[in-house]
Amino acid sequence: MEALSVIAPLGLLGLDEITSKSPESRLQDGHDARRLLWTCLQEDNQGRSLERAIVKGCIDGNPPYVESTRPKDRKWECNLNFGEGQSIMDSSGVPYFALFANVPYFADCRTNFEKDNPDHETWCSKITAAFSCLLKRWPQFNWNIQQISYWMRLHGIGPAFFDRDGDWRFRAIETGKLLMPKGSASCIDNRLPFVIIRVRYRIVELWDMIKDEGAAEAGGARVQAIKDAIRFGMKGTSSGTSWWAQPWEFYEQQLKNHDLSVAFTDSDFVDCAYILVQEFAASGKSKKISKFLFTENEVVPHENPTKGEDKQFLWADPNSYDDFTQCLVAFFQNTGDGTYHSVRGIAMRAFKHLEVSNRLKCQTVNRAFLDSSLIFQTGSKRNEDRISATVWGTIVRLPANGEIRQITVQGGTQGVMEVDRMISNHLANNIGMFNQRTLSREDGKGEMPTATQVNQQVAKESSLSEGQITLYYQYLDTLYWEIFRRAADPSTSDEEAKRMVQELIDDNVPKEALADMEYVRANRQSGYGSPQMALLKQQQMMAIVPMLPEQGKSNWLEDAVTTIEGPEKTERYAPRQYIPNQDDSIAALENGLIQEGRAPVIASGQDDVVHLNSHFQDAQDTLGPVSQAIDQGQQTDPAQLQEVYKYSQIMIPHMEAHIARLQNDPMRKGQGRLFQDQLRQLVAFDGKLRAELYAAIRQQQLDVEQQQQATALGALDQAKVSSIQTMTDLAAKKTQSQIDNQNLKTIHKLRLDAVKSGVGMQLDTAKTAADIRNQRNKALAVPRELSQKIKTPAKAAA
Predict the structure, then answer these.
(1) Would you call 291 helix, strand, or coil by DSSP?
(2) Residue 240, exposed/middle/buried by CB under 10 A (0-12, 13-18, 19+)?
(3) How far apart are CA 541 and CA 529, in angstroms?
(4) Cα(91)–Cα(95) distance, integer angstroms
(5) Which of 322, 493, 529, 572 shows a CA-CA span of 20 to 30 A to 442?
(6) DSSP 176
(7) What are the backbone dihedrals phi and psi of residue 179, each rounded to the nearest 5 degrees, phi first?
(8) Which of 646, 555, 517 shows the shortest CA–CA distance to 124?
(9) Shortest CA distance to 161 belongs to which of 255, 272, 18?
């Protein structure tokens, strides 16, 4: 009852007094939303809005005196704004711009998915690069960030509002357009009951919301209410007093055919407002934030609403956010006294000093005019009427009659200038680091400062304090996180967001890595936001750069190029590259030894993670083609299988030794378990490889046996064929031999007969000759008795 009685007058419902249940939404209709808006506007008009207007006028160059109210006799006096306020805004804008812009990438993105995975750092780097590219592709990103910074420095609060669900783009909102109930905390959190954001729409923007009426209604749009708002905004499109009573087709035709001229000449702005309401938490659930859009002025009378549109909301999306920051992020210059309306920006803190300084400077100019003029005093009113000076070039003639006395105006400009200098110094102390460079003593006297003094002054100029940097980065982190959350949402329909996600997936970044992010944090820039301070720090570090490791030198070079040439030149002059260290070299040598069939020895002090990454990569390169061939069912040479099997028999125990060292390290047990999982896959493939090798060897043996059998069968058949051929050849040869023998016999017989005939004739001849010789011998033969007588003397002689 108490909660209901307190909240109900403001337009928000409380718990039901009977059931103690929360309603679907605490805000029921547009009439109650306007009551909340008007209440906040009344509170804002009690001096706050006027204060903002005066401060902004001073920054914009309004003179210190209202010219229309000055007496005529004082029109000659100086009435100028000397632009110190604009100068302070410009100098304070430099460091804030540098904090987010002078970095190689906007935000450091780290995923919480599989943090022990060796590719985890690679995923984070790829996500970081893709997110920065997404922001760079949005042309209005730079403008909106600078607008947020401008309103934060001017009035103390710079809101960023996501006015469209499903869109990661935001819009900068003027400080006065963000309304909070009295006593709200100086932050955006669950302590706020509601927040109102005033937004002006042209009718073409409202019409764009309902071009697709089906999709608009599904998203929460009240199509008829938006049509009524457009109708009431198009006052100049129809003559007569019934301009609002035309059928909708008339206005739709005007927008389709003449949207540009109608929107900018014949139509008014439609003043709308979003209200974010924190709902009561349902049983067992957390609180939700509802968003409603309504017109500031009623377009449908509350007493006689259009049928079905009695809530008068243009857009209703109850329970759509988990917290306010999913829709609204506000940058605070400071926290004030803890309440929202106590926060002041740099310009508001400097306004009183600037106003007095402008008046003093005007007075100094007035004094200078007086001191440089010749002033006469008339003795009487009669002489004043008689005085008339005549000027001929450089000669002035005064009248002879009349008493004139020359006087001197006391005071001069010195005292005014000293007071103005005091005000300027006091202002510099009040606003912190944004004072302009002073190249002389504060009193304007003395020698010029030394180089060291100039460097110290440069270090102070356009720089931020540690607290200002921390606070700004805190809000920038929140903004980047919400942008990334919306862009990485799988249900987004934005083409640029889909492109970012698809590029990461194509680059082997798991979808789970985008859904389970640890943080998205703005990239911190050195130098307190001051380029001069960053350069000084770079120069101070040059003495120790040679002592840094190679990776540190590379990082220092990258920061130096970013500071000197800007982030756009960083990749060109100092591209990021991985510099192999000693462990990479040793791991590569070990891979070569294992390829040769020799087991390397693990030395003390080796980086096991580097070695394991190198060994797994080498194993992938060596075993990958074989695994692919096996999976595709290709026949593999057993000699190749035996070679890679021998490789795996050496590589696996070596990896197991590295993993054992990791598991014995309490700080790296997680990495050891991860590598152990990868090793199990390698061991499983090793078993598959062994089976494939045995199968290949067995297949080779079978092939040899089949070849031998085939060879044996072929020899038998060959023998049979050869035998038949031999028999045929033998038969043919036998026949031919018989024919040849018969021929030879015939020839032999003929020859034999011829020989016989010749021999017979020779025998007969020889016989005849022998008979003749015998007959002759007989005739010449010595008698026996005579021959014996002849032989005896011969023997005696012997």
Answers:
(1) strand
(2) exposed
(3) 18
(4) 8
(5) 529
(6) G
(7) -115, 135
(8) 517
(9) 272
